[in-house]
Design a protein that fits this description.
81% helix
Amino acid sequence: EIQIGLGDRDQARATLQRALDLQSRLSGADSPATALARARLGEATFAAGDAAGATTLLRDALPRLRAGYGADSREAAAAEASLATFEHVAGNRDEAFRLATHALAVARSFGDAPEIAMRLAEIGRLQQESSQYDAALRSFDESLRIIERDQGERHARTVILHAQIGDVLRYQRRYEESQRHYETALAIEREQLPAGHALIGSTLLRLGDLQRRRGRLEDAERAFAEALSILPEGNAQRAQALQYSAELAEAQGRFDLAVERHRAAFATFRRATGDSLYTWLAATQLMQAMIQAGRLADADALAAEAVPAIARVSEADAYERAVADAAVGQLRHAQQRFTEAIALRRHALAVMTHEYGEQHVETARARIELAASLAAARDASLRDEAATLLERAARALEDSSDPQAADALGLLDLERARLHLATGARADARADLAQAMARLQSPRRLPQLREAQALARTLR
């Protein structure tokens, strides 16, 4: 346990394997004490990057713990909480929530405040990763209040909760609130933890992504560089750091570098978590980076592997399936296979609307993407639908305070100009292109800016 706390995961795994071997000889392979050792080894195995091995160990240990200590025992509940995380990574969400909810109920029955706080945080993480953001905030907030009440506002255990609350607020694009929580976490870490501690790297990773989203690219670069200097090779958080630094490269217009970093993130997630949602969502991001870099054949080959994999580990209307459909829809559009792109982008829009609501930037972006494929299909019967989608997206974006709204409006202006050109409305197209060129000024939008400039030259 000390080795885990110090981040020495491989050595911790070896030590716990020795403990399991000794305990099996002392009390037998089926004893409750051996089941406890097996559960601890499962947790260390997951921390060392072997999600499949961890799941096997916990699934084997849990019924023995229930039989030896009782179904509502602390020992069984602790194993349920760990297994819930592993089941969620494997795509078994209902089972993950069932296990985590029972573990929390057991903690509440004992009235153990620290354990209740821990179980609430675990459920909050599952809720967050299932896009249940308001529920996740309630779980994290209750957990944080318990720790602050019992151990003080500057206790090191508050760090992870501040970071998790910051994550949810970041996903909700409540950026100022999110930054306050990250900065609080980082300040406590720098006060109370040794330099180079993994938690510092984790918080820097989150803060860097927030700074990227806010357009503070130099600050983001510094945060990612320090995070990558801390986070160990082969670790899922290092994979996430590579992923975020790839997104930064995209924001800087460095698309070949983005492909390189996304490829490294995909490989690291695969080593750390196996055939998991994290692995295949990283693959969709790599696919999109390849499209931006003009590597359509590479993207097509990756799609052939990623799409069935995501179908294996997610439900038909899950957010992850919509992300994959959006990525493959982008590929099919780039390949001028517009009928396929339209079907994929329709499904992505339906799920995004359900997940985020009608007025969210991501929903607006999905509307713009579908409208682009409808217009590109050169079917006059689809143009009215495309125009309606763009109008609804425009209303949402013009009322939004999200920093990414202006970028999305630039894409919208470009697609609306194409529609106006298709119907012969040259003056309207000229006005749209002028707005598009003013808005598409970020380095990542250089390809779209060039498209707008080329269209504008045809109207002179």
